Amino acid sequence: MGKKLTLGIVFILTLFVVSSTVMAMDHSMFIKGPFDSGKDVTKKCISCHSEEAEDVQHSIHYQWEGKTSTIKGNKNKSLGKKDDINGFCISTPANEQRCAQCHAGYGYGTEEFSFEDQTNIDCLVCHADLSKYKKAKKDWGRPDKSVDLVKAAQSVGQPTRENCLSCHAYAGGGNNVKEGDIEKELIHTNREYDVHMGTDGADMSCQSCHVTKDHKIPGRSIHVLGSEGTVTCAQCHTDKPHNSSNISKKANATLNEHAQTVACQTCHIPEFSKKSKTKMEWDWSAAGSKDADSKLKGNFVKRKNVKPTYLWYNGMSENYLVGDKINPDGPTILAKPVGSIEDKKSKIYPFKEFTSKQPADAKYNQLITPHLFKGFWGHFDWDKALKAGAEAGGLKYSGEYTFETTKTFIGISHEVVPKEKALNCGSCHLGGDRIDFEALGYEGDPMVKGGRN
Fold first, then answer.
1. Is 428 domain-assigned?
2. 433, part of any domain
3. Distance, CA of 361 to CA of 367 (rounded, Å)
4. What is the rounded distance in angstroms from the CA atom of residue 404 to the CA atom of residue 357?
5. Does this model's pTM top 0.85?
6. pLDDT band at 34; cut points 50, 70, 90
7. 28 within domain boundaries
């Protein structure tokens, strides 16, 4: 009788603990408000989650910079937005009021903002139901005036694909503009589009691969400075992933041998931008003209179903940093993978090859950030915009400017197709034109001429 009583008590206690855990996920139980600002919500979050606030405070998503061991010549330096110039919206100095729309904080770029003040952290942008929360487009990353902060705070939970993609899909100023393989369609799609995130496939969250610890989110994009770790396919699939029963053991062995030289993404992402077009070229020199594709931003070339550019990559990259000299013979490379056929650590990876024509100082031979938001986009005076942008970014400006061609290589890792739609042998070999083997250092088709030594 005593044993049964003991078991009963254990069962009741277990049920209580489980129930309490489930109930604790419903934040409406203990968040009542009212809240006058996003910072007031954060104060409430910190009252229970002080350790998490400390973790976020020192994360790249909040600091917008961090150490990296993957940038050639700048190993373990702390680098971030302040050090970066790209070919899209160019960079943050003087443009913080708009850029802060995708910062995990409130007030970034304002005089009163401090990274030391944890109440500046925006917990809601990652954890709230985004049908109840959004940031204002023009208010330094603060909540939109229409948001009911109490309802938003009560809705918090684990980040969803929508939380992540609300910023990452819109990098560069619009859906799929920059990355090429990160579109809003990933929020709700099918396995034909992406086997990992398709709701009829694995239906994975972003954190399934970008496994987060202490709010540090691993992931490496060579055009982004700073990293909190690397994500690889081998985390789930091992380095010898081919074991299909539909083909011979020899064929599986051949495919696994390929995996030592060819990245998984190369065969399993034949095209990118399958739903929305991505920008492949951006000519800023045309901005200000009424005949441009956009008077604000200039001319574009947009494409969908894009075949990647294939390059060797060993995990390191070369990046243009603020103040670097431009290439007088052009184009100036802003980000590219490091690797070669001789480097055994290198594999062939797919990339989006993006070209931009953007402003540079004609005397100092360096790229310059223009003041765009409430700057050039209002007065369309390049000299005025470049003077203000250079001052904000700590650069000299001679008063003489030109437009230089730049090139950026962006890694492609999303939009993985079902295995039956992956590239086959004939895509690349024996007449296949998918890969230019000679450009990669081979004598020709390695099936005919032999592989690398």
1. no
2. no
3. 6
4. 5
5. yes
6. very high
7. no
